[in-house]
């Protein structure tokens, strides 16, 4: 059995970067004000294995990104708004291109929503807020995201909508796939109650790792990308052919593989861009099956057929 | 006038599916009308051709996506063929020509997918085989010289037919890198359905010609095309990109769409000027300007 596993790992394909379309920043490290039961990198108030990035560190990578032709910038954590320099970081970014922040929106008082709206208005590029909400009721959401998260998130969404944003509501699917329409309807109703009448909703497949592996199940041994699976496959569906993740501790292949040492590809964006990414991790299998779920729209991925 | 042909295929189409506009040697091209997605709106197409002629366009170029929301796709194709207007391959044309299962816009939103499917299946079923055959010859890119400027025309982006280049998601450095890589002074595309342009460094430009097929999600019934012009009296490198609104008989098109059993949502868009479907791909800023 051990020999078979080894063979599978050795056989793991690797893919090079086609173009650095997306640059991601682990801007809050693994520090989060919530403690979600499905977090794929187990972020929490105490998890400081990756620390905040400074505005200066982000600015250096931004400078590098211009020469590399980056098209979109994404900010994640942890909770990005735990980073006290976040608004300055966004101002620097929006001078160069579009920015997307993946947030739980629980740290979104009206004054912050207003200053974000000002940053967006001052830029010719779009500022997208992607808000994680994992249920259509308080009970359903807070069972995953912790007590009080639902109410604070809904207040945050309301503040953003009031300032003119159309936040992208993302939800990890925790129901059978055939029930999705029912839940979408539930989200539309719920968001309508806080004045969000034309919501953008993005349903994500579960990643069976970190806290989520504890909560449900992990990947089994057969759930790996193999060389054979890559034959005729559109590689551009994989985020690591189009993106890199900058952290306070180096540059990684993708935002999901923060805890995989082999996914650390260099100290600088340029170094990491030049090195191929291995698809040996089990999460690569989800990316393979579902396409680049991390991007805002599928249309930013994909090649002509 | 509009019938400046492409160099015969086989000679000028490169391995990358690129063609050149054939230039009469004694007539420098300085004024060209450019049409984005037609989406089977043959009435707007007819009106735009007449308007471009009135404004003295030396040539007309279509950037692809002949079919989609509108009625009777063959009508649009026949106008373009009769006029001899060269067409760049759009994702819709590519899908229709090859009989693919969808339009390659890549929607994941169930509602967008529902309407995209209706539109695509209708267009595929109602495009005649000989027109589909004609579409297989569309090049992916067309190059031409406008004054002293090298223009590269494509549907989505120089690298991908179905890449969306929106005004608020496309950094200048990204476009400048692409222009350098392609050795072009002007990058000319469509695909998003909303026209925009930006001056780049070194006197270079990106121009999105917009779409003739449906309004620009701006609450107006008019649709848009683009007139590119270089002042022949100058150094031949100073570009003007003018976006021109086109009025056409919206009611007549709406009647035809209804008669063909097309969704009321498509008719609502041409009547109101607000997009009602295919919304998922819009960035936040562009979407916030619309109604839905």
Based on the structure given, which CATH architecture of chain A is correct? Alpha-Beta Barrel
Gross morphology of chain B is globular
CATH topology heading of chain B: Purple Acid Phosphatase, chain A, domain 2
Spatial strand arrangement across the major sheet of chain B: 1-4-5-6-8-7
Q: What name is given to the CATH topology of chain A? A: TIM Barrel
Description:
The complex is a heterodimer of chains A (305) and B (292). Chain A is of the alpha/beta class. Chain A has helices at 2-10, 55-67, 86-94, 110-121, 138-145, 149-162, 180-192, 211-215, 227-230, 269-274, 282-290; strands at residues 14-15, 22-26, 72-76, 99-103, 127-132, 168-172, 200-204, 243-247, 250-252, 264-266, 277-278. Chain A has 11 helices and 11 strands. In chain A, strands 7-6-5-4-3-2-8-9-10 form a 9-stranded mixed beta sheet. In chain A, strands 1-11 form a two-stranded antiparallel sheet. The longest helix of chain A has 14 residues, at 149-162. The model of chain A is unreliable at 1-9 (pLDDT under 50). Chain B is of the alpha/beta class and 292 residues long. Chain B has a single domain (30-289), classed as Purple Acid Phosphatase, chain A, domain 2 (4-Layer Sandwich). The termini of chain B are far apart. The model of chain B is unreliable at 7-13 (pLDDT under 50). Chains A and B meet through helix 7 and strand 7 of A and helix 6 and helix 9 of B.
Features:
heterodimer; A: 305 residues; alpha/beta; TIM Barrel; nine-stranded mixed beta sheet; 11 strands; B: alpha/beta; Purple Acid Phosphatase, chain A, domain 2; six-stranded mixed beta sheet; four-stranded mixed beta sheet; 10 strands; 32% helix
Summarize the structure.
The complex is a heterodimer of chains A (305) and B (292). With 305 residues, chain A is α/β, with parallel strands linked by helices.
SSE arrangement:
The complex is a heterodimer of chains A (305) and B (292).
Chain A: H1 2-10, E1 14-15, E2 22-26, H2 55-67, E3 72-76, H3 86-94, E4 99-103, H4 110-121, E5 127-132, H5 138-145, H6 149-162, E6 168-172, H7 180-192, E7 200-204, H8 211-215, H9 227-230, E8 243-247, E9 250-252, E10 264-266, H10 269-274, E11 277-278, H11 282-290
Parallel strand pairs in A: 2-3, 2-8, 3-4, 4-5, 5-6, 6-7
Antiparallel strand pairs in A: 1-11, 8-9, 9-10
Chain B: E1 18-20, E2 31-35, H1 42-54, E3 59-62, H2 73-83, H3 91-98, H4 110-126, H5 129-135, E4 141-146, E5 149-153, H6 172-182, E6 186-189, E7 196-199, E8 205-208, E9 223-230, E10 239-246, H7 250-259, H8 264-272, H9 284-289
Parallel strand pairs in B: 1-4, 2-3, 5-6, 6-8
Antiparallel strand pairs in B: 2-9, 4-5, 7-8, 9-10
Helix pairs in contact in B: 1-2, 3-5, 7-8
């Amino acid at each position: 059995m051990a020999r078979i596993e080894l063979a599978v790992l050795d056989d793991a394909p690797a893919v090079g970067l086609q173009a650095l379309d997306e640059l991601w920043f682990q801007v809050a490290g693994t520090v989060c004000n919530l403690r979600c039961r499905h977090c794929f990198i187990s972020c929490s108030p105490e998890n400081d294995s990756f620390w905040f990035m400074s505005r200066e560190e982000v600015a250096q990578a931004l400078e590098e990104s211009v020469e590399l032709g980056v098209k979109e910038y994404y900010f994640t954590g942890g909770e990005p708004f735990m980073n006290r320099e976040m608004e300055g970081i966004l101002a620097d970014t929006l001078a160069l291109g579009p920015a997307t922040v993946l947030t739980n929106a629980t740290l979104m008082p009206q004054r912050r929503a207003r200053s974000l709206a000002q940053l967006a208005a001052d830029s010719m590029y779009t500022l997208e807020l992607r808000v994680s909400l994992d249920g259509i009721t308080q009970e359903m959401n807070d069972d995953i995201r912790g007590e009080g998260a639902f109410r604070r998130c809904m207040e945050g969404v309301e503040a953003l909508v009031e300032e003119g944003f159309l936040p992208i509501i993302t939800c990890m699917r925790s129901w059978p796939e055939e029930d999705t329409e029912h839940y979408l309807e539930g989200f539309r109703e719920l968001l309508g109650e806080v004045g969000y009448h034309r919501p953008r909703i993005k349903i994500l497949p579960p990643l069976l790792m970190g806290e989520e592996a504890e909560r449900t199940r992990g990947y089994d041994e057969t759930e790996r990308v193999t060389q054979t699976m890559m034959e005729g496959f559109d590689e551009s569906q994989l985020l690591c052919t189009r993106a890199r993740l900058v952290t306070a501790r180096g540059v990684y292949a993708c935002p999901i593989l923060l805890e995989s040492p082999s996914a650390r590809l260099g100290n600088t964006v340029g170094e990491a861009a030049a090195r191929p990414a291995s698809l040996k991790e089990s999460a690569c299998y989800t990316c393979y099956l579902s396409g680049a779920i991390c991007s805002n729209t599928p249309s930013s991925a994909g090649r002509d057929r | 006038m509009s019938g400046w042909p492409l160099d015969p295929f086989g000679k000028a189409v490169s391995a990358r599916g690129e063609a050149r506009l054939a230039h009469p040697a004694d007539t420098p091209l300085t004024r060209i009308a450019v049409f984005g997605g037609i989406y089977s709106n043959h009435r707007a197409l007819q009106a735009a051709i007449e308007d471009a002629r009135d404004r003295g366009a030396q040539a007309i170029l279509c950037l692809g996506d002949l079919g989609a929301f509108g009625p009777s796709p063959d009508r649009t194709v026949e106008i373009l063929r009769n006029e001899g207007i060269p067409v760049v391959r759009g994702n819709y044309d590519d899908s229709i020509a090859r009989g693919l299962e969808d339009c390659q816009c890549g929607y994941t939103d169930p509602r967008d997918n529902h309407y995209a499917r209706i539109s695509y299946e209708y267009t595929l079923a109602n495009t005649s085989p000989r027109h589909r055959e004609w579409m297989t010859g569309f090049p992916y890119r067309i190059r031409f010289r406008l004054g002293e400027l090298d223009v590269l025309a494509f549907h989505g982006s120089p690298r991908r037919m179905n890449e969306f280049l929106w005004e608020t998601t496309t950094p200048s450095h990204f476009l400048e890198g692409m222009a350098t890589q392609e050795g072009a002074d002007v990058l000319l595309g469509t695909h998003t359905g909303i026209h925009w342009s930006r001056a780049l460094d070194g006197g270079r430009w990106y121009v999105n010609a917009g779409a003739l097929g449906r309004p620009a999600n701006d609450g107006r019934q008019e649709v848009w095309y683009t007139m590119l012009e270089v002042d022949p009296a100058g150094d031949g490198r100073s570009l003007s990109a003018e976006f021109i609104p086109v009025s056409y008989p919206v009611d007549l098109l709406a009647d035809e769409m209804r008669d063909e059993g097309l969704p009321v949502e498509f008719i609502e868009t041409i009547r109101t000027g607000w997009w009602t479907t295919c919304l998922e791909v819009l960035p936040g800023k562009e979407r916030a300007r619309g109604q839905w």
